[in-house]
Specification:
The chain contains 12 helices and 2 strands. It is an all-alpha fold. Strand 1 and strand 2 form a beta hairpin. Helix 1 packs parallel to helix 3, helix 1 (16-42) packs across helix 10 (207-221) and helix 9 (177-199) packs antiparallel against helix 10 (207-221).
């Protein structure tokens, strides 16, 4: 075929452009959310990255690459959350509790990994001989290996653990378990909605829209059932949580000192 895709070859269907506009908007939402979620997880303060974030620059480069790929009739690029999380975890130095101390920030791992992906085209006949369960097992392993750093998974584990085995987290320290379970159930409901829509072929095209609905659900629905400080401890940024804990402990200390003064006065 020619180098460039035939954009105006509509096969006699002049309405194809307008018909494709709806799915294109949903696809844009999927790409935008997928990239945004991945970068948000990578640039999280808990990863202690020193080079800083670049949300706008990453989004611009991703859009530019997809524009070029679309003109050439090539597949689009989208952030792959699980491999990105596995990659940063493998480059991270952690303490005994799993807290990230520092990350070896380098471009060489990205360069060599994508170079190997490109070279894999030379071995397609051999790769076709790999059983599909083996390939699925690799993706399953990548997903399972990244579960340890996800707060949602930690909250699910508390259902099956003794209190002495709980991972030390702010929400477990300051919140009731019933409130934590209530929030986790709400997350499962959101996940179930997205999962069901994604796996029903007739409505699967609305999957990006369902994913986007999780945002207003978090911003406006959950605050009707949870206090602001509870939501902060459950899904807030690390620096905001630390600031809240400092204020909490300072208030507790001040109240304790006042009680001691009252006792001394009596």
């Amino acid at each position: 075929r020619s180098w460039f895709a035939k954009m105006l070859d509509l096969d006699g269907n002049e309405n194809a452009i307008f018909t494709a506009a709806g799915p294109a908007i949903l696809l844009f939402l999927l790409f935008y959310l997928d990239n945004g979620i991945t970068w948000h997880l990578i640039y999280s303060p808990r990863n202690n990255l020193k080079h800083g974030d670049s949300y706008n620059w990453d989004l611009f480069l991703n859009g530019l690459c997809n524009l070029i790929n679309g003109i050439l009739g090539l597949p689009w690029l989208v952030a792959s959350t699980v491999p990105c999380m596995v990659h940063i975890n493998k480059l991270a130095e952690k303490d005994m509790d799993g807290k990230v101390l520092n990350v070896q920030e380098t471009r060489l791992t990205y360069l060599f990994s994508h170079l190997l992906v490109g070279l894999s085209l030379l071995f397609l006949p051999a790769m076709k001989q790999i059983p599909m369960p083996v390939l699925l097992g690799v993706f399953l392993f990548m997903g399972l290996s990244s579960l340890g750093g996800i707060d949602f998974w930690k909250r699910v584990l508390t259902v099956f653990q003794n209190p002495s085995q709980y991972t030390e987290t702010p929400f477990l320290k300051y919140m009731k378990l019933s409130r934590i379970y209530m929030y986790t159930i709400a997350q499962l409901i959101f996940f179930a909605g997205v999962f069901v829509v994604q796996n029903i072929q007739v409505i699967a095209i609305a999957f990006p829209f369902m994913t986007m609905l999780c945002i207003p659900g978090r911003l406006w629905l959950l605050p009707k059932f949870f206090e602001g400080w509870e939501l902060l401890l459950l899904d807030g940024e690390a620096d905001q949580i630390e600031e809240w804990i400092e204020k909490k402990e300072r208030i507790v200390n001040e109240l304790g000192m006042e009680e001691e003064e009252d006792k001394d006065g009596v």
